[in-house]
Write a structure and sequence with these properties.
189 residues; four-stranded antiparallel beta sheet; single chain; mainly beta
Length: 189
């Protein structure tokens, strides 16, 4: 039975003093991350622009032509960025500083014709939040095509006294980002 008919059943609050994170059962979405009370994520407080904070994208990232996908000759309705962000995930482990939620093919109805288990694990440490994701193909006899992605919205500016031109996103090592051209929401070129 699909669990996507009701609003989120639960918000899990993780805290360790300086850091607080909130994770919704709907979509296993990180909906808040604060350090010393300062929000680091957009918390959906302007839903007229975007009602999310950090959705999980599965089994597709982006859009399929006509919001349809054909798998093994069967046409499936596939919304932009897949369906995982819309469904209720079941908590499988939790505590004051950690929560683990799972989505399976049984939870997603006939939306995806593969047996799978997708797990999201959020764990607070003294100075950071670790977010880990595990996808298991439970059908050992066939490959399961999929895309997986995250779409976090970081709050900016954290400090309004710093001009926007002075803000930077940095990584611990050089990263490569390929440019993808889109036409009508679909990849082109």
């Amino acid at each position: 039975m699909s669990r996507d008919a009701a609003p989120p059943a639960e918000i899990f609050e993780l805290t360790n003093g300086a850091l607080t994170a909130k994770v919704a059962s709907r979509g296993a979405e990180l909906v808040s991350l604060r350090k010393d009370g300062v929000p680091y994520l957009y918390e959906g407080d302007a839903p007229q622009f975007w009602p999310r904070s950090a959705p999980i994208l599965f089994p597709v990232v982006g859009r399929c032509r006509g919001d349809r996908l054909v798998v093994d000759g069967v046409e499936l309705k596939m919304p932009r960025h897949g369906f995982a962000r819309e469904l209720e995930w079941l908590p499988t482990r939790g505590g004051s500083d950690e929560v683990e939620l799972e989505l399976t093919d049984a939870d997603s109805g006939r939306r995806w014709p593969f047996a799978y288990a997708l797990t999201a694990i959020y764990q607070l440490h003294p100075d950071r939040l670790d977010a880990r994701y595990r996808l298991e193909n439970l059908e050992r006899d066939r490959d399961m095509p999929f895309s997986f992605g995250l779409h976090p919205a970081f709050r900016r500016p954290l400090d309004p006294s710093v001009p926007a031109r002075d803000w930077r996103v940095t990584f611990p090592r050089p990263m490569r980002a390929d440019r993808r051209l889109l036409e009508d929401g679909l990849r082109s070129g």
